[in-house]
DNA sequence: AAACCTAACAACCGCATCTAG
DNA sequence: ACTAGATGCGGTTGTTAGGTT
């Protein structure tokens, strides 16, 4: 008890999250939503969402094989993967491509959950607390004590961890240093107030110093709303399109990609609440970047083929166009990675056996599985 | 410039609670 | 009803950036 089982794994990474890890987690969650955090680490492979829903084995890298057409459909993304993550795109002699994808996160599910909730969630509100938020925190803390999650539920975009840190650092300090005038002003409080809200005398000092209207008792109904139909959080499309913060800009790029794939509602907790987690595609009508024209993800989607390509809203000419680009992609692979050997026996060597990829010092590939449907 | 201090915040730990089998 | 695993929550620690001496 106590330690989550997934945290006992030997190779679980600890400490600060890298941008790459964040990206993996964001991509996974924005596509699949979250339901079972313990599954997230192994499933949060980089391109799972673009390719197919295949369980990730316990290996650092995973091998997929795709038709040329599928590869061409994914070309933009594979380019990106190629350059950013040292993945490998190698055509074999059968006209099929082997795509090597970095496997999941070396984190425990608990860590993934915390990272998402406290940092990566799209509706997170960063920056300093406003005076209104500060007052609300003080008020709620007086009412419910250290129930940070409860307090956070009344401050949209703020996390319990953030509020807790804020309280422990800043507010506590303020309370510890009441002004000399506080003792006189506190007498204006109703006699029953301390017991009603559980404020300490020092807290009352602070509230008085802040000219906070604690004289007006906050109705308990207002604090403890039982309206469970209110969403846990709502996605603020305005903040995204506005891109008014550094973090927002970077995250928006993810969301632009993900919204093409996910317009479903999210099941956000065990009470079956569903919220519109991300804006509809219509929210991004200004986005004309063709690189975002990715295929829709379906649960049953296997490695893409010509049929799935036709489902990608790319019209009939696509197939021909794709094949016309075959020379281009071959040329591209040879130009960019002349030292890579073309893999011409993938079919024979896959299927559970370990395969050492030639010239792969930066890959270190161990292949333990590949899609059975291939 | 270096050492030290401090605030802010990210992440971990352990316990409580929930839930599915 | 019981149990094991999963998740939620609060306390605590670790890390880092910025300020001060």
UniProtKB/TrEMBL annotation:
Domain HTH myb-type: 9-45, 121-175
Coiled-coil intervals: none
Domain of life: Eukaryota
Gene Ontology MF, one: DNA binding
Keywords: DNA-binding, Nucleus, Repeat, Transcription, Transcription regulation
InterPro entries in UniProt: Homeodomain-like_sf (IPR009057), Myb_dom (IPR017930), Plant_SW-associated_TFs (IPR051953), SANT/Myb (IPR001005)
A GO-annotated cellular component: nucleus
SMART domains found in the cross-reference section: SANT
Record's subcellular location: Nucleus
KW Repeat (keyword) present: yes
SUPFAM superfamilies per record: Homeodomain-like
Entry keyword annotation includes Zinc-finger: no
PROSITE patterns assigned to the protein according to its UniProt record, in alphabetical order: HTH_MYB (PS51294), MYB_LIKE (PS50090)
Annotated TM spans: none
Domain Myb-like: 9-120, 121-171
Name the record gives this protein: Uncharacterized protein
Organism, scientific name: Escallonia herrerae
